[in-house]
Amino acid sequence: MTFLAEARAADDYVRLERFLDRHPGQQALMADFADRVQSPPMPLAASPRRVQRIAVIYPGLQASDYWRRSLASLEARLDALHIPYELRTFMSRPSVDIDLQARQLTSALQWRPDYLAFTLDAVSHRRMIERILALGDPRLILQNITTPLAAWEDEPPFLYVGFDHAQGTRRIAEWMLERAGHHGKYLMLYFSPGYVSRMRGGTFAAEAARYPEVEQAAAYYTGGDAETAYRATLETLEAHPDLKMIFANSTDVALGALRALRETDRLDVLLNGWGGGAAELEALKDGGLDVTAMRINDDNGVAMAEAIRLALIDQADRVPRVFAGDIALVTRDTPAAEIARLERRAFRLSGIPEED
């Protein structure tokens, strides 16, 4: 995809603030639904006439535990709500397994699920999703995206669910740029060409561009691959020994960059994570990462289950178009007790990481 085409594609996504300006009635729905997600479960008074079929297609084969925890929290909340269900799960690597994901989608739809949880990053995902929206069945839950597509305004998915990439990135950028004194070179380690790179990498680049003395030394698309990030970091350090910051677009990318920084004894270079899962929190405690945007992870699975519950009691009109979970900034200066508190909240259903 050319940069021009990518810029046009980015315009298709309606940032959350603008979405609420255009749909003010959604604000109250979102607030009510957020309260529901944070509240204890209210089990169904009567069992549904039939078991609900839920198909999940996630790029969960990566170091980030976001997708696995999403699944665990979904199942835990469904059980707590006394919703009978069958679950079929399809996992793949991010971005590089597009053909596999297409085959998984075909298999999932042949099962005739009531709900399909999928993600949106590559252009091919969009084409797959549009076919489902045109059919109107199953109910589609789009994971890891909180910016609705303008093109789907009239036929939206059942729910957009996740954590606002731009919001989390702005918090990371503010902290990193201040620590760097608003000057110096940075390396951009994108994910793959697509949604996550635009919302995370694009947001950081826009924030950095506000400061004339901040310069992007290099940029690489990594495909979310740690080894690619490792090699890109080594190359950039050799070409730009005065590098001050690295913005990593995902967990695996951050861990690959961290390996390079450790090998070259360059932990003075600021490095972020994104998501605040177990691997990132461990790297923060070890002094490798400097900052991350920590998702209150299990809220996303709870939100999916609560949306299904509302549909089962004929209150689908109370499901907001978007659920964006809370994000906390965690840095190398965050006290251990505060991180432990956030872990208890974020992983309340999927399990607290065990201490070594």
Automatic annotation (TrEMBL):
The keyword Signal applies. Keywords: Signal. Residues 54-308 form the Periplasmic binding protein domain. It comes from the Bacteria. The keyword NADP does not apply. Its main location: other. It is found in: Cell envelope. Belongs to the bacterial solute-binding protein 2 family. This is Substrate-binding domain-containing protein. It comes from Halomonas koreensis.
